[in-house]
Amino acid sequence: MCVNQRFVDRGIISFDIQDDPILYFIRLKKLPYHFFVILFISCQEQGKTGPRRPVRGWSRECNTRAFEKNRTTERDEPLNQGIESKSVDVLLAINRALTSLRLYPATSTIVSSAVDSLYRNLLAVFDDGVSELIFAESEKSLLINGEKLPLREQEKPQMATFLRTMFNFGLKSAGFNKGVNREQLLAFLEILSSKPGEYRGEKALETALKERGVRHIAVDKKIYVVKDGEHQLLARLEMTDADVIRYLTGAAPEIPLDMQRIRAMAQDPQWLTNIFQSGLAAVMQGKGVRTDAELAQRLVKEIGLLEGIVHQADREQMSREVVRSITELDSSVVGEVLMHGVDNMMGGQLFSDIVTELEEDKFWEVAEQVRRKEAASGSRMDERTSLYRRLMSTDKGRALMERRQTAAQDDERVCTLQDRLQAIIDEILSGSALSSREDSLEELWKAMDDMVAADEIKGAAKSLYRLGTGLQAENPLQRNLVAEALAGLLGRLPGKMQIEILGDMDRALALWVEVETLATVPYKKLCYGLKDLIQWRIQTGEFEAILPVLHPFYCIYHGIWEKNDTAHAVASDIIRILAARDNLDHLFDVFDKERDDERKASVGTLLTRLDEASLNRLLDRLRDERDSQPRVRILQILTEAGSPAVPSIRARIDRNEPWYFLRNLAYLLGRIKGTASAEALTPFLLHDNEKVSLEALKSIHRLGAKDGGPVLLSILPRMDESLQVRIVEELGHLRYAPAVPQLIGMLQDRSFIVSAQRADLEEKLCFALGRIGAAEAVPVLQKISHAGFFSLRKYDEKVKAAAARALGGLRA
Questions:
Q1: What's the predicted TM-score (pTM) here?
Q2: Given CB 3.0 to 4.6 Å as the disulfide criterion, which of 305, 460, 567, 629 pairs with 519?
Q3: Can you list the positions of beta strands (E) in 150-248?
Q4: Residues 583/538, Cβ–Cβ less than 8 Å
Q5: Is 673 exposed, middle or buried (0-12, 13-18, 19+ CB in 10 A)?
Q6: What string of H, E and C letters represents the secondary structure of 729-759?
Q7: What's the Rg (C-alpha) of the chain?
Q8: What are the residue ranges in the chain where pLDDT is below 50?
Q9: At what angle do helices 457-468 and 437-453 cross, to 10 degrees?
């Protein structure tokens, strides 16, 4: 083979040469995404063939094999259609979950359902024997476990969306291992649903996943493909990682393995860690089928075999990984592992390292499990043979025993109360308390009273947070029971504590107010509790935190959300109370004195979310303010208020207000989209002051033909000819087709004596009909354009010219 020397000299290509047969590793260094193209070339003479020999210095990352000259590349079997279809389902589920996370809080049932769907789809792939599912990008195409997705799937918009997400985050691949769980999936999705700019820099995503405890989702894992004609296949060894895992876990001890090659591969710590974690996941797949003792036996065997292949320099790191993984298992499995004799493993430190790493609670669970098992065996054990005594004789065991004995009596009553309260809350959350509603609530009140009497208010507050999760239940009766329980428990706490708890739960409660359909007594209590929270935040200046809580009441009050009469009455009363004079005086005082632009904007928005009294005070300020900068700020605030501000603005036309103020109001209505704004402009259009009516006409133009056209058409007959000229011209600019019959009628309805003003109107009528594209106006336009000296009706030359231009536009 001849490699162009220019590419080598310029640093675009580099290669290494192994023994015969020659294996060129050619690396294309300046591609957007680095990948390897592996070419196998025999250096023997043309026509000869030689035996295939192992290549020294084999790289595990390449995962490929050398082939003889003139032999075709062996292919992995392609993904079967079932796995391909399930993998595509996983991608679709990822897209749905990301969309849900961008629209709803991570705690919402919609997001939870989307994550559950993704988890089920992943399990379906793993159930088909796939231990790892990797999505990668290559040449703007999507690969699944190294194989290019078929064209019919690549063309789906969801695939393009997923690729775009990968590009935005600089993500080259994302792999899901068997051990992945819902929490890890949610953490991964929350990162991908954030702004890409938050994760800049090399390995930023990988670092973020590690910080969230995500160990079974790998990003930017190198995927190398063999180029073979038009196909891309994932290269592999004759001995796969899956074979190694099955051997180490005892699932297939008969597999013949090249231990020398495995030891060479084990020099890569990351590979060794992945092998151990995959083996651990494979062992724990048997939980529920095999006993904990059987699982522990397999796990201890895996650790022993790994210890035999790990390099001495990497043993400490491997030991830490083993200890961390074991201590994260269920306490029952940890106890069985310790009972299977791990004293001599990992340099004789494995037992003591596991004990040291165990958290106190889990250490106690392990010790208790060992104690019960030794007691059940019926054999007498001394200090030397009893594992339980050995555990409790460690520093951790002795210290824990002393603390537990000291705290046992003090905690006994409190724990009983907490357990009792938690048990009742569990019944309510599960729905089992619906059949015994009154009895369950009475027990709940009594348990809370006892907690408060025992000065365990903080412990009781934690239970309330958990109870709050039930507000998102699908069953409205279940939500109502949770609301009643929550309202009753809050009422038994001191006022300041109530505000603190409501403050921590404010977003969840605001979301519940939005979706709740039953306006019951508990609904009212919690809504008025949120009103108290808003009032507290007004006094303490937490204006930014008020808006999300006030928003649902604002939407219900103004009819933006459809609710029943009771819910509307509650929202109206809350808005009225919050818009009390003292509050408005305080808020306007803060608005005037605040120098921070963001806080000032928050206060201004808050003022528009209250009732008409607040809007009227803003309008008064707009009228009385002489400085242009404050006027512009008030106009911006009122524009953001939207359609709820229109009635207050419309009412000002009926007062004897200055013309310049009315002109500002006409300007303002043009920036509040909707039919209500257009209809409110009607009296402004009819105003005696020309500056006011012209500003209203500009606002109609901004609102567009759909909202503004009907208003112009309705007032056209009531205007004198001087204003009709402007309105007709505007109807033409808007291209408002429903006006055509009336415009033709106006053009035909003329007297023999024509004034100059009438000529101006006829010119604009011809212009408007041509602009609208009114084909039905052609006869009358022809009659005007062809009118001569002997015609019965005389037309001004500019009218005839306008008619001719309109005809030209219609014919074009």
A1: 0.47
A2: 567
A3: 173-177, 217-219, 225-228, 231-234
A4: yes
A5: middle
A6: HHHHHHCCHHHHHHHHHHHHCCCCCCCHHHH
A7: 39
A8: 1-78, 222-237, 790
A9: 150
CA 652 to chain centroid = 44
pLDDT of residue 163: 82
Q: Which amino acid is at 644?
A: P
Q: Are 694 and 719 a contacting pair, CB within 8 Å?
A: no
Six-digit token pair at 82? 């079932």
Q: Take residue 484 and report the two structure tokens written for it.
A: 């009643």
CA distances from 85 to 128, 222, 540 (A): 12, 24, 56
Q: What is the pLDDT of residue 570?
A: 93
Q: Which of these, 765, 771, 784, lies nearest to 810 by C-alpha position?
A: 771
Q: What is the model's pLDDT at position 345?
A: 81
Q: What is the DSSP letter of 150?
A: P
Contact between 389 and 428 (Cβ < 8 Å): no
Contact yes or no for 778/810 (Cβ under 8 A): yes
Could you tell me the sign of the dihedral formed by the alpha carbons of 323, 329, 332, 333, in that order?
negative
Q: What CA–CA distance (Å, rounded) separates 645 from 525?
A: 29
Query: How far is it, in rounded angstroms, from Cα 778 to Cα 740?
Result: 12
Do residues 327 and 290 lie in contact, with contact meaning Cβ atoms separated by under 8 Å?
no
Query: What sections of 431-504 are H helices per DSSP?
Result: 437-453, 457-468, 476-491, 495-504
- CA 644, CA 612: separation in Å to the nearest integer? 9
In degrees to the nearest 10, what's the CA dihedral of 269, 275, 281, 285? Answer: -170
272: tokens are 């060794």
Farthest-apart Cα atoms in the chain, separation: 134
Q: Are 383 and 351 in contact (CB under 8 A)?
A: no
Q: Taking Cα atoms as reference points, which of 700, 625, 687 lies closest to residue 652?
A: 687
CB 119 within 8 A of CB 113: no
DSSP string, 476-495: HHHHHHHHHHHHHHHHTS-H
pLDDT tens for residues 424-464? 888 888 888 787 888 888 888 888 888 777 777 777 777 78
Distance spanning both ends of the chain, measured CA to CA: 66
Cα–Cα distance measured from residue 394 to residue 400, given in angstroms and rounded to the nearest whole number: 10
CA–CA separation, 575 and 611 (whole Å): 6
Token code pair at residue 449? 């009273």
Q: Is 606 exposed, middle or buried (0-12, 13-18, 19+ CB in 10 A)?
A: buried
- Contact status, residue 42 vs residue 23, Cβ threshold 8 Å: no
For residue 21, cis peptide bond before it (omega within 30 degrees of 0): yes
pLDDT of 274 reads 81
Distance CA 260, CA 719 (A): 99
Query: What is d(CA 715, CA 713) in angstroms, rounded to the nearest whole number?
Result: 6
> Are residues 21 and 69 in contact, defined by beta-carbon separation less than 8 angstroms?
yes
* Ranges of H-type helices in 220-359: 241-248, 259-265, 269-284, 292-309, 315-327, 331-339, 350-357
What single string gives the DSSP state of each residue in 371-414?
Answer: HHHHHHH-----TTT-HHHHHHTSHHHHHHHHHHHHHHHHHHHH
Rounded to whole angstroms, the Cα distance separating 375 from 505 reads: 47
Question: What pLDDT, on a 0 to 100 scale, did the predictor assign at position 24?
Answer: 35
At 221, phi and psi to the nearest 5?
-75, 135
CA 307 – CA 343 distance, rounded (Å)? 13
Rounded to 5 degrees, φ, ψ at 41 are -130, 130
Percent helix, strand, coil in the chain, to 5, is 65, 5, 30
674, amino acid identity: G
Q: Tell me if residue 700 falls in helix, strand or coil.
A: helix
The half-sphere exposure of 696 on its side-chain side, counting CA atoms within 13 A, is 30
What is the identity of the amino acid at 165? T
- Cα separation, 313 vs 323, in Å, equals 17
d(Cα 713, Cα 128) in Å, to the nearest integer?
Answer: 68
pLDDT of residue 71: 31
Give the E-state strand segments of 507-575 in sequence order: none
Q: How far apart are CA 550 and CA 608, in angstroms?
A: 11
